[in-house]
Specification:
Chain B: It is found in: Cell membrane. The complex is a heterodimer. Chain A has helices at 44-51, 74-79, 97-106, 112-117, 125-134, 150-163, 180-197, 208-214, 232-237, 239-246; strands at residues 6-15, 18-28, 33-37, 59-64, 67-68, 82-85, 168-172, 200-204, 217-222, 225-230. Chain A is α/β, with parallel strands linked by helices. In chain B, helix 2 packs antiparallel against helix 12 (258-272), helix 3 (60-76) runs antiparallel to helix 4 and helix 8 (180-190) crosses helix 10 (202-228). The chains are: A alpha/beta, B mainly alpha.
Chain lengths: 248, 327
Amino acid sequence: MSKPVLSVRNIQKSFGGIKAVRGVSFEVQRGEILGLIGPNGSGKSTLFNCILGQLPADTGEVEVNGKPVSNIRPSDLNKLGVGRTFQQLSVFPKMTVLDNVILAGQEHRGTMLSRLFGPGDAGLTAEAEKMIEFFRLTPYRDTPAGSLSYGQQKLVDAAMAFMAGPDLVLLDEPAGGVNLTMLANLKDRLVAYNAEHGTTFVVIEHNMEFVMSLCTRIIVLAEGAVIAEGSPAEIRANQTVIDAYLGG
Amino acid sequence: MTKVNKGFIVAALLLAVAIVAPIGQGNYITYTLASWLVFSIAAMGLNLTLGYAGQISLAQASFMAIGAYITALLTLSGWHWMAAMPLGVIACFIVGLLLGYPALRLKGHFLAFVTLAFNTLVFLVLRNEEWLTGGSYGLTGMPRPGFGLFTTMKQFNFYYFTLAVTVLAALVMWGIVRSPWGRAFTALRENPIRAESLGVDTRRITLLAFAIGSAYGGLAGSLIAPLVQFIEPGSFGLAHSLRILLMVIVGGAGYFGGPFLGAAVVILLPEMLRFTQGYYLIIYSALVIVMLIFVPAGLMGMGQRLREKFWPGRQQRADMAEGARLK
């Protein structure tokens, strides 16, 4: 098997006396869509933040494409090929959709000085327009992102996460608050992007229908520890998962 | 017509107004117009730091002071303004970079107090180090620059010299805010966590916002020294930093044209209201209060709101369009 895109080993994180994550380890292979599910307070978001360097883990290691990335700044992690989306809306509301998407790619072009003296769009307009088209946002290219609907802002957020051509994208509750039509659109685009580019996804999500239909493998967390791992069908049938999370 | 073309036409018209404005005017009006240009430069710098990058600073007058004193000391010892000015600007860039470090840890009013303390520190150094700065008596008699046959000793000529420097400074600022740096500054203001996750080095861009904004303060200071030909610490106290902040807010923080409009309101409006004699400051203050209450986004923001109201774009909100399609 080839080198995993993401390797998480024995991550532990406590907040005072509360152990939020208890020695979680897993690997994600290239092109895989991994779902991380679990009840509220199971440690999903804490684990996500430890992987992304936004919370320092107490112990454990994270590697991206074989490179250790523990304690690395989020901007440097992004330059190593890791994109992410946020649970809350995270577009730049006063910028147009085009500017949002260009921003997501510009820091990967040239040096700081060449970006000052080079073209205003860092030569990314055509590429950004393609990404906007891919996410079916072309009519809103010049609209301030903050005036789009909630679901469309989620699409802009996803377009930004993919703009720099990452190897790995971590999606934090992408379906949260999105209506059914837009959700189908989002899932369709994620699957298409994965098929076209072989990009690896790790998805935190509570919408079981969305996770089960999108992911190729699922890890279930409860009380900070992994309680099950397998294909969507295996997870659906797992009695421990049913008792802890899915319910009968 | 594209947005950029419209902006270019408006800028060209404003430049034409600025060129004809002092014609037929006396020395005092020409001096006031030159002051407007100088404070527009200082406000342009603060607009980058605060308006575009979202970092509060109450120290812009202290950077004017650093630029003014360096230029004054060097020109008094025989340097040409063109040689002295870059040193003042570079010094402000470096000091601004250092002042930006607290901004990496502090936000909002905590950062405001750090910059306020810095302004006070600069004021005290200028007042107490008499051997260098002349203390409370200040420095006088700074020569105005000459360029071959063109001398700026006359108020009229100095105005056009200041206008030329202002246009150059504005073009450089336009280049910065239209570049990817400008987009990164705006991203820092709107959502620093998201910006960082997209590869924007928010630490570096924060420091740059302070450094470039401060350098513009230094440039304004290097012009005020030969304009007034007298500088003293009181001209660069906290009240003056607050005035520059007022220019940015009244003009419209984060709008390119905001500092010019804001400086016009703060510098020119009181002069225009002088016909009301003893009431002009009361009327001016009341107008500013009313403006801030009803138009918090400043004059440029008001312009945009009026445009949206009377000439709305064809773009409709996406969720409304979706809603209209529901059966």
